[in-house]
Protein 1
Amino acid sequence: MTKAELKEKANSLPLLPGVYIMRASDGTVIYVGKAKALKNRVTQYFGSDTNHSEKTRRMVANVSEFEYFLTTTETEAFLLENTLIKKYKPKYNILLKDDKTYPYIKVDIKSEYPVLSLERKYKNDGSRYFGPYSSSAKKIIELADRIFRLPDCGKDMSRIAKRPCLNFSIGRCLAPCSREISAQEYRDSIEDAMLFLNKDYKKTAESLSKKMLAASDELAFEKAAKYRDMLKAVNALKEKQSVLASPQTNADVFSVKSDERNICFLLLVVRDGQIQDKKSYCFGLFDIEDEKSALSEVIQRHYAESEYVPPQILVRQLPEDCDAISTWLTEQAKRKVELFSPKRGQLVKLIDIADENAVEALRKYNSKEAKADQQLAALAYATESEVVFSRIEAYDIANTADFGRVCGMIVFTDGVADKKEYRTFKIKTFEGQDDYRSMAEAVKRRFARYKIGDESFTKMPDAIMVDGGKGHVAVIKQVLSELKISVPVYGMVKDDKHRTRALTDGETELALDKDAFALIYAIQEQVHRFSQTYHNKLRKYTVSQSELLNIEGVGPKRAKELMKKFKTITAISKASFDELLEVNGMNSAAAKKITEYFAKPIDKRT
């Protein structure tokens, strides 16, 4: 459709809330938006572009068609918009990188000897959950395990081990696995650990102090010394923690800082009045419409991917659709969520701290981006390319004589590893080891899926790198030629010590300066590590399946279903009888045989 036709269609839209989808000429969804009144919002795109941002001008220039969905409320529009953005990942919407659900620390208090574990989702299973955390949960578990001498070995504490491991001997673990400590004494330690996880350092210190004095009165000086060491660790940590707000303050604090080129949205995570974590999202200024609408999008994308919404969300300047966002978050959290801009007191101080961190995050992003730009420019010069390679795909084959072949595909976007775009391929069409045939199969499958519109392979690379020399380059060029696809291909050549040496276009080796070399080296190391990791994972998976075949009543199909559900042989060994029965195709007899098998010592399993 022409711009005039699009404008005419937009003028026919109703003045009702809803969601609209912009599509390119090939049908690809390039933008999803919501509006209180569809007609007013969508017609703005196809009128004069005088007041449009650079991002909007670029988006509208690529629109060939649009469609819309009516909703009864703005909240419904929020939900539908988030669903469609998650489904289509449109080019011109703000998409947050590495937006994973925040993990929790779980303590199964129903267990006689509970341990601390990392859980991605909160479950109503009677356990105690602490968090959620963004990036520090694992470190907190490690710290708590060390301070309170809890087991970190992953053993099933319901089974009694013959002897404790080395950690017990060096005073790092209470060894509940071999019952070196009574259930009640161990429970006391877990209670202290839970006070610690709840950041109640005062009560934690009081509990440890009482135990130290009691042990001293009983002349158990070695035990008293251990409590003393725990107390010192807790007090040292307490001194480092600065309480910035009341202990009841649980909030996420958003700050926005920009310069002439980029913009950074920083999230400060505050729990129990203390800063627990921070997360930053940085973009180029051309990638946003304006600061307020971008902040609205960032908040929506962040909480669309998060299972936890705190009671308060603090900002310096209120974003667009503030009331609608608050209503949406309140419905999502099933309790009141307040999005507001404080004007005085401790909460303003939190925003000030978030601002300081946003400035630093923007500085680091600019430095990182400048380095990536320099490397990409150097690579374009080395390859005599008229354009800078925004998206680079790299491929590597991993194989061994005793176990099949796989291919790893990694992506560097604007000079930085883009792990969400990584893909893997199992080589299926032939037996034996042949790197060239393996590479041809993987690349052919990747671009064949692009041809049919597979959503996982919709983006075309600006350049392809292969871990290999002229032969590998020739193979990929042949595949692309057959598919009528034109993309430059380069081989990342290694020397006889398996170190990156040069780049080849299939005919000659290309001279690389230090910046281009640094980028190629990073790509080659990343793709090699990724393909080897995938290969090793599949190999371990297959070995685990083979062990399961030793169990009476478990055949290849049942072994596959067990691995599909539990992922690892360790998880299967810890599974209860009832959990095993949940496996597709499982029956009581086979589940019983599995529990009996793993109840035996390792050296007696046959």
Protein 2
Amino acid sequence: MTAATADRPWLKFYGDTPADIVVPDMTMYEWFADTARRETERPAVKFLGTSFTFTQLLAAVNRCAASLEALGIKAGDSVLVSLPNIPNVVIAFLALNRVGARAVMTHPLSSGDELRTFATETNARMAIGVDMFYDTLRPVVDDTGIEKLIVCHIPDYLSPIMKVGFKVTKGRAIKAVPSDGTAIPWADFMKSAHVPTAYERRIEPKDGAVVLFSGGTTSMPKGIELSSWAFNALAKSMITLKNLTNDDSVLAIMPAFHGFGLGLCIYTCIVGGAASVLVPEVGTKSYIDALVKYKPTYIAGVPTLFRSLMNTPEFKRVDFSGLRGAFSGGDSLVPELKRQFDDVLAAQGGKVEVEEGYGLTECVTGCALSPPGFYRTGSIGIPIPSVRICVVKPDTIEELPPGSEGEFAVLSEQTMNGYVDDPEATANTLRTHADGQVWLHTGDLGTMDEDGYLYFLGRIKRIIKVSGISVYPAQVEQILETHPKVKTACVIGIPDDYQVSSVKAFIIPADGVVADDALAAELRAFAKQHLLKWAVPRHIEFRSQLPTTKVGKVAYTELEKEEAAKAAATNAQPDS
């Protein structure tokens, strides 16, 4: 064992991949422009039959930047971007970076209250939204410091034939947006400036450039400020790890407001010279249609999407012979689901396996990935180039030996600058260790084995204490989902007079399975074979569907709220 692998044992699985990368000392716009000048007429973005070459995309970004400046946007300003995966979101994101403004990326389906909070916290001066959600966004503009609203339309960059098709289908349900000086159509906005000026750097690579929002699983989502440097570190690591080339294409169905979608499927792809295939609607049909039409070399998704794809007959028509990589992120990938999806890939010509990743928005997205050919059951992978991960005793900086259970801490160039206007939370998350380096404390519990493989147990805040014993919902869910009669499981803790808390499992049965008391008993017996007795669900409730977050994870907090409301209603009943 070399000195390097003694410090980072996972390097023995790297093969020819360098252990470290050099982060490009550029802004995101500068790296993109450099790539565009080299790749010129190769495709950069593909969208519903339309294709942008790198030259065309660079021209559109420069035009957008000039239009932003013509409306008074300058370095240091914040602009709320609330768009699906359409060309406008790529153009606006890179143009804001050229100007030096922060791109505040939000979900188009965010509520008005959420958008008000996002706009107020970041002091947004402008918003860029889409017409179908105008009625939600316009009141936010009126209630905050936003001065202009740029309104995009899905057909902005569609071919004439596709525009007609959109208008007679989905377009009929979208109301016309009034042009009143505050709301400006995208096409008019892009014509509002004269010839773009010569480029001048207005923001340094390590300055705040993007605000993404956490999942908000315990409270209102936190604003996470990230730099060009952080995005560049991720991109350089993944381009190096996967040898991304200009012959590649990445299916971008993960949304642009999410680090996975924006950081990997769009930004890394484009600066690597590959084509990003934008899919504006997250769903099995749109995913399958894009797979058939574009034959991307890389795909990504969350576990729930992969499961849904396998349950769709049309998925069998997809040819995976040209696939170079498939990634799962956003939630834990159950080993059985990975095995099933790997079998499907192989049966349809694929020569790759699904690689599970681990990451969090505080470091853009992925910082660990399962090495192909060296998968270990239940592991979320090993650190990617230039990333170090250790396990610490929770609420301390004390590093623990291999095999110990504790909190993941990450040392990476991808790390956030901090939480927006929340120095206390930033200080609790970014901590200086004994080596003098600032590590990101993730709030995730897990272990690392002697070879550097990581095993995720769950969020610290999600532990259930049953008779004083720690139970990890993610672990219980994984076990339940290995049972052939279970499609999806979500586990929470509910009050218990004897145990303080007890485990309740919400389960969606597999297709065709009868949900009854016999099934519940069978699942409890199955759980007893694999779990400590305290972790076996005391309560099981069957459902046909479960609430989900905006990125497709099961929203366990909604189930907790339901149970809390039931408990409150029961306690409010008068004694008989």
